[in-house]
Amino acid sequence: MEQKQKLWWKDAVIYQIYPKSFQDTNGDGIGDIKGIIKRLDYLQELGIKGIWLSPVYQSPQDDNGYDIADYQNIDPMFGTMEDMLCLIEEGKKRDIRIIMDLVLNHSSDEHRWFIEAKKSKDNPYHDYYVWRDGEEGVPPNDMTSCFSGSAWEWVPELKQYYFHQFSKKQPDLNWENEKVRKELYQMIKWWMDKGLGGFRLDVIDCIAKEPDKKITGNGPRLHEFIKEMAKETFGGSDFLTVGETWGATPELAMQYSNPDGSEFSMVFQFEHIMLDQDGPEKWDVKPLDLVELKQVLSKWQDALYQKGWNSLFWNNHDLPRAVSRFGDDKVYRVESAKMLATVLHGMQGTPYIYQGEEIGMTNVQYELGEYRDIELLNMYQERKEKGYKEADIMNSIYKKGRDNARTPMQWSDEKEAGFTDGTPWMKVNPNYKEIHVERQRKEEDSIFTYYKTLVHLRKEMPIFVEGKYELLLPNHPDIFAYRRILGNEELLIVANFHGNEIQCPDIQVEKEAKKLLSNYKEEKVGVLQPYEARMYHIIK
Length: 540
Ligand code: TEU
Ligand code: CA
Prior knowledge:
A hairpin with a 4-residue loop joins strand 7 (152-155) and strand 8. By secondary structure, the protein is an alpha/beta fold. The protein has helices spanning 33-38, 40-46, 81-93, 112-117, 178-192, 222-232, 250-256, 290-304, 322-325, 333-345, 374-385, 390-400, 437-442, 447-460, 462-466; strands spanning 14-17, 50-53, 57-58, 70-74, 97-102, 131-133, 152-155, 160-163, 198-201, 240-244, 266-268, 311-312, 350-354, 468-472, 479-486, 489-496, 502-503, 514-518, 527-528, 533-539. It is globular. The protein has an eight-stranded parallel β-sheet, with helices on one face. A five-stranded antiparallel β-sheet has the order 14-15-16-20-18. Bound molecules: 1-O-alpha-D-glucopyranosyl-D-fructose (TEU) and calcium ion. The site of 1-O-alpha-D-glucopyranosyl-D-fructose (TEU) has 14 residues, from loops. This is Alpha-glucosidase. Pfam families: Alpha-amylase (PF00128). GO terms for molecular function: alpha-amylase activity. Residues 16-406 form the Glycosyl hydrolase family 13 catalytic domain. It comes from Candidatus Scybalomonas excrementavium.
């Protein structure tokens, strides 16, 4: 049966912060927790109710903090535990909850557990990780890491390999070992007692791995582990839990987001994010087919209606900037950013805004030396060795590199976009002179003001949360149109997803329809202008 208490995250919008690139306050060029506290009033103005923080735990930063060396300590580069507790308290004063990023599939190789585990095969921590006997140069199988190269790392002293789905400095934790699970649940409860509002769970569908059978995602014991974790910690509460599940299907998501609270609140599924990928590697792209995108997003809306809950997002710290990928970051940047926001925020689920998305920040094209991300740098080496042309590799980086999302937040047109007084850890996008928060907070027709309206509407109008979704014009190659229905109320969303002016077939907008918002001041009858989006409210 459904959980009883009102779930705050059902009419909330969540904002994702990549702390390293958000706001620096001590001049070391790296964003910090004090910087987030300094910007809470801005986030309160935007109207968001939760902040998902990418990891700020102690870490050697091999994968920018997704390699955790101590789950219960804050890395000095971000500040102190007192800063973290202050952020939680200051957030509460503004009705904003803090959601931390839990990386439970792997730890850093500098975590004390792994340091112990490597000492000997009979060390009590040895089977906290996944080891296989072997001989040098002959890994147990040909599984590869997501960050290029083999997923097996040789330890000569032990004559063993350890398994790592990501970098070799991110050894996979062995969830088959009950002691590992118990330690992780203790840590989760420890953080819950600190007053957090939720967790994002990193690659959580990879924890039930069976490497001998080459199984990583959706392993046989996955839901058993998740149910046990929920029961021991956050289950049945109004704690927001969102799992990152690249391999989710609607059927699996019904389990993950079962309203009975037995697993998570929701998951990030990535089916819509894979549609412009050409083949098995993210670096090879093809044009996005709008009809396919509409089919996929509608399938998820229909499947989880009154059975589960969707997360809604276009981008995050791993993905290129939405306006560059799905819109037009040159001529129609403002219109297309607003169109994408309208199409996403009209749907049922919890929307996520990634830092900078609300002001239409764009991708970058840097010299190789300006990039920082291990995934991208390893791919560059691997493809160079395979003989790929330099220009083709760089084009893949420009289109899909994770660093597109990690350039510093653009606060103003001052030095380094107001992100730091020092030298930023990563180069600021040169377009910060035009694209920044300070300017857009004042402009009536800015992308920021548009997002503020969308966030506000979701809180004020129950139809955004409860209305049934219905796709319109399913086969139209340019128009994304749908409605939401709740009793005698209707929301109608009509969007031209492309940059050419098109005839708009008659979607009988009743006379008394009230236009809630649009990205053009003037309408042309029977026509949708480039990237034009409109949202109507109709009372029948
Ligand atoms: O990402 C999981 C993941 O698979 C992504 O790295 C994805 O493969 C790729 O980035 C697509 O562009 C999570 C975190 O979000 C990511 O930042 C971490 O690097 C990764 O797990 C390992 O913790
Ligand atoms: Ca700093």
